[in-house]
Amino acid sequence: METRGTRIGLWIWAVLVFLFLWIPLAIMAVYAFNSSNIQSWPIPGFTTKWFSEAWHDREVRDALWLSVRAGLFATAVALVLGSLAAFGLSRARFFGRDSVSFLFVLPIALPGIITGLALNSFFVLWGVSFSLWTIVIGHATFCVVVVYNNVIARLRRTSGSFFEASADLGATGFQTFRYVTLPVVGTALVAGGLLAFALSWDEIVVTYFTAGAQNTLPLLLFGFIRQGQNLPIVNAIALAVILVSAIPVYIAQRLTSDRGPGGG
Amino acid sequence: MAVDPALLTEGSPRRGALRSVSRFSWRRPGLKTLGQISAPVAAFVFVYVAALVALLVKGFWTTDSFTGKVVHAWNLDNFRTIADAPYPTIVFRTLGIAAAVTATCMVLAFPYAYFLVRIASPRLRLVLLVATVLPLWVSYLVRVYSWRLILNPDGALNWALNGLGLPDLNIAYTNWAMWLVFTYIWFPFMVLPVYAALERIPYSYVEASADLGGRGFTTFRRVILPLAIPGLAAGSIFTFSLTLGDYIAPSLVGGPGSSLIGTVVFDNLGLANNAPFAAAFATVPLGIMAVYLVLMKRLGAFESL
Question: Which of A154, A234, B37, B160 has its CA at a distance of 20 to 30 angstroms from the CA of residue B122?
Fold first, then answer.
C-alpha cells in the first residue's frame, strides 16, 4: 500500500536508527583497544594490554568478585520467589490478585532512585549495616519480576489438562511437579535466571544506595569515570561488561522464542 | 520427558504423608495458592513496601545541621524546602527534558516500528527487534559513558563533522547532551509498545480506508495514528519515569546547570548528608508519576504494556 517514496524513506529511517543504536557501542568497543592514555578519536593504535592490566588490578578483582556473588545470590532469590509467585498466581482467581501481581512489578515501574532510597532508609532505620546481603536484597526486588514474567508466560501457554492427566494417572503433587511442571517451565526458569543475572550484573542506580562503601563493578566504573581516573582500564572493563551481559540475554532469547526447545 | 513407568502404574490409591499432602492441596486449590504466594508476598510487603513507608516517614524527619545526625522530630520543613529556590527550577527542568526526550523517542520510534511491521521481511524483523532490545540489557552505565567519549571535544562526533567539512559541535556537559543521551538509552522502551500496537492493526483497516477514498496521509492520520496512541502512551511511561529518576546521565554528560531531580536526591544522600530531605524530594517524582500514570491510563496505555 505504501508508495515507493514512503518505502524508501522508511528504509533510510530504519538504517539510521539502527546506526544510532549501535555506533556508540561499536565506538566503545574500539576504545577498549586504544593504545594511548588519551581518549581522543580516532585512536592512534591497537593494544590488548588494558585487559590484562584490568584483570590484574586488585580493586577491579574485588569489585568483579562482589558483582558475581551479588548476581548469583540475587538470581537464586529471584528464582525461588519469582517462580513461587508465578505458580501461585497462574491459575488462581481471587480478590486482590491484580494487586499482588502489581506488587511484584512495582520495583521496575517506579524510578530506580525511589527503590534505592527507600531500601537505604529501611536499612538505616533498622540499623542494618551495608554488606553483600543488602546489595542482594536490592537486586532481588527487581529480579523477581523477570523470573515471574517468564514463568507465568510459559504456564499460561500450557494447558491445565497436563497436570490433571498426571493426577489421573496417580501421581502425587510432587511427582507432577517433578515430571510435568519442571520440564514444562524448565527453559523459562533458565531464561528468567539468565535475565535476572544480566540485570543484576550491571545495575547501578539501586546498587549505589544499598552498597554502602563497597564497590560492585559498575560502581567502581562510575567512580573512575567521574574522577577521570584509569580511563583505559574503564574502557576495557566496559567492553567485558557488555559481552558478559549480552551473552546470557542472547541465550535467554533463544530459550524463550517459540521455536526454542520446550517452547509451546 | 523421561518418566519412570513404574511411577505411573495404575493401582489402588497409595497411602503416605506425601500423598496426603498432595491430595489435600489438590482439593483445596485456595490453600495451595496461599502456600505458594505467601513467601514472595511476605518478602515484598515486609521489605519493599516497608521500605517505601520508611522513605515517606523519613521525609518528615530532620537532620541536625550541627551534628549531621538524623533527628526523629516530625515536621513538614523538608516538604516546605522543596518550594524554595532552586528546587522548583530543577523540577521544571527535569519535566522539560523528560517531555523532550519522550517526544523525540516517539518521533524516532514510530517510523521505525512501522518499518518493522509493514516493510521488513519476517527474518529482518526478528534481527532488528533483537538488535533494538539487546542494548537495553547492555550496561546502562557503559552506554551513557560511550556518549561521553563521543561528545568529547576531540571525540568521534567532531572528527566526523570535520571530515564532512563542518565546524565543531561542543555539546558535551550541557542539557543538549542529556537530551541526546536520554533519548539514546530509553529509545528501545518506546519502540516495543509502539511496535506491538502497530502490529495489532489489521491490514484490512488500511484497505478499507483506501476503498473509501482515503489517501496515504489521510489513512495514516485517521486510522493508523489513533490506533497507535495506546502504544505511544505506554512507551512514554517508561521514557518519562526513567528520566525523572535518573542521576547517572546528569553526572556523566550534564554540566553545572544540569541538575535534575535525581541529582538532588543523590547529592543530598551523599555529599550534603541530608537524607531526610533526599527522602522528601524523592516523593516529587513519585507524585508526578502517579498523575502521569492516571493520564496515560485514560489513553489506554495499560492495555498496551
Answer: A154
Question: What are the pLDDT digits (tens) for B100-133?
Answer: 999 999 999 999 999 999 999 999 998 899 889 8
CA distance A130 to B40: 23
Of A22, A195, A218, the CB nearest to B141: A218
Q: Are B297 and B134 in contact (CB under 8 A)?
A: no
Contact (CB<8Å) A88/B37 = yes
Tell me the C-alpha distance between A78 and A189, whole Å. 10
The predicted model scores a pTM of 0.84
Q: Is the dihedral of CA A132, A137, A140, A142 positive or negative?
A: negative
Inspect the interface and report whether the beta carbons of A221 and B142 lie closer than 8 Å.
Answer: yes
Q: Which residue of A has its CA nearest to B125?
A: A14
For the stretch A195-248, pLDDT in tens is 899 889 889 989 999 998 899 999 999 999 988 888 899 999 999 888 888 888
Placement of cell 519469582 in the chain: A82
Distances (CA, A) of A144 to A108, A140, A252, B230: 10, 6, 16, 27
Which residues are B71's β-sheet partners?
B62
Instruction: Quote the cell numbers at residue B50.
Output: 516497608
**B221 is written with which cell numbers?**
492520520
Q: Residue A46: phi, psi to the nearest 5?
A: -105, 145
pLDDT tens for chain A, residues 1 to 264: 578 888 999 999 999 999 999 999 999 999 999 888 888 888 888 888 888 888 999 999 999 999 999 999 999 999 999 999 998 888 777 777 778 888 888 888 788 888 999 999 899 888 899 999 999 999 999 999 989 988 988 888 888 888 888 888 888 878 888 888 888 888 889 989 988 998 898 899 899 999 988 999 999 999 999 888 888 999 999 998 888 888 888 888 788 775 433 333
B215 Cα distance to chain centroid = 36
Residue B162 contacts A, CB cutoff 8 Å: no
Are B36 and A85 inside 8 Å of each other by CB? yes
Half-sphere exposure (CA, 13 Å, Cβ side) for B277? 26
CB atoms inside a 10 Å sphere around CB B2: 5
**In whole numbers, what is the pLDDT of chain B averaged over residues?**
85
The whole-angstrom distance between A87's CA and the closest CA on chain B is 7
Residues of A in contact with B54 (CB under 8 A): 118, 121-122, 125
Q: Do the Cβ atoms of B134 and A246 come within 8 Å?
A: yes
Grid coordinates belonging to A219: 560502581
Q: Which three cell numbers, joined as nine digits, stand for B151?
A: 561528545
Strand, coil or helix: what is A10?
helix
The interface residues of chain B toward chain A in range 209-248, judged by CB-CB distance below 8 A, are: 210, 216, 241-242, 244-248
Judging contacts by C-beta atoms under 8 Å, the chain A residues touching residue B7 are: 171, 175, 179
Which residues contact residue A2 at a Cβ distance below 8 angstroms, ignoring those fewer than 6 apart?
A10, B118, B119, B216
